[in-house]
Design a protein that fits this description.
The chain is α/β, with parallel strands linked by helices and 278 residues long. It contains seven helices and ten strands. Helices cover 28% and strands 21% of the residues. Strand 8 and strand 9 form a beta hairpin.
């Protein structure tokens, strides 16, 4: 939530108009807009982050914090997971929260009924499906608000060091030695490698053709039809052990200061391509 309210879209919607939502709320404890505006005021107004005077012992002062308990209770009320105190998936919560923002922008009175801050993350993807059997293509479009990437462990820059670390760790565990003091060596993976894997053609051998009642082989690629104002990247850091139990991948992602995605811009049907006819 702190990251969201660094964005001007959410600041303008909920902080600059907080008095509007406070005045309109008939039942503030159960009002989504009022609770979100209250959170925005707590984060952005500066009222709760005053500097302790130099002549005052900071250790004797109560922590200057805010606890958005009413917001948390409200946002999690109708969700089986977010209503608990257990740690939850950040990407799943963000998706759920943005859906709530979108829903309330549509149905609730606001200073500007056309302004929905959740749209700053939305983009459209193009899927190109190539049928080698007939040399034809099909183009599909879908909306999303999160750029989901797999973590390509095989692209780690320090594979040798990671291998040696895992071997040493395994040997120490077998000998019953403590590994707490062993410096952790994580795979270092460039974000660009994960993006390249996402953009690479994917061959699917059992693509169903409902009209013909059979399957065929296709090659699928995906690109961006539109780009968002802010791109949220979700790294899929879970995999499965040999016994199919989930396992979280512990990696370090190397993220550049500037990311050029122009090569992923979709260009639609190309000269010489023939569309599949249903």
């Amino acid at each position: 939530m702190q990251v969201l309210f660094t964005l001007k879209d959410f600041q303008e919607k909920y902080y600059k108009n907080c008095d509007f939502y406070f005045d309109k709320a008939k039942d503030p404890a159960n009002d989504f807009n009022a609770q979100t505006a209250k959170l925005a005021h707590g984060l952005l107004s500066g009222v709760y982050s005053k500097e302790i005077p130099a002549n005052v012992d900071a250790s004797l002062q109560a922590p200057s914090v805010i606890r958005p308990q009413m917001f948390r209770l409200l946002i999690g009320r109708n969700h089986a997971d977010f209503g608990t105190k257990q740690q939850q998936d950040a990407a799943e919560f963000l998706q759920y929260y943005l859906e709530q923002v979108n829903n309330h922008c549509k149905k609730d009175p606001t200073p500007d009924s056309t302004f929905d801050p959740s749209t700053c993350f939305q983009f459209e993807l193009e899927e190109r499906i190539y049928f080698p059997e007939t040399n034809q293509v099909r183009y599909l479009a879908r909306n999303d608000s999160m750029f989901r990437l797999n973590v390509p462990l095989f692209s780690a820059k320090n594979q040798h060091e990671v291998h040696e670390y895992n071997k040493l760790k395994e040997d120490m565990e077998k000998q019953g030695n403590r590994i707490n003091d062993l410096p952790v060596i994580r795979p270092i993976i460039p974000l660009q490698e994960a993006i390249s894997q996402w953009a690479a053609p994917e061959e699917i051998n059992d693509y169903k053709l409902p009209r013909h009642g059979r399957t065929t082989t296709i090659r699928k690629t995906q690109k961006f039809l539109t780009f968002p104002d802010y791109l949220v990247v979700q790294l899929k850091k879970y995999t499965f052990n040999a016994d199919w139990t989930p396992k979280k991948i512990d990696v370090s992602m190397e993220v550049p200061d500037v990311l050029d995605l122009n090569s992923l811009r979709a260009s639609g049907l190309q000269p010489g391509e023939t569309l599949v006819t249903d």
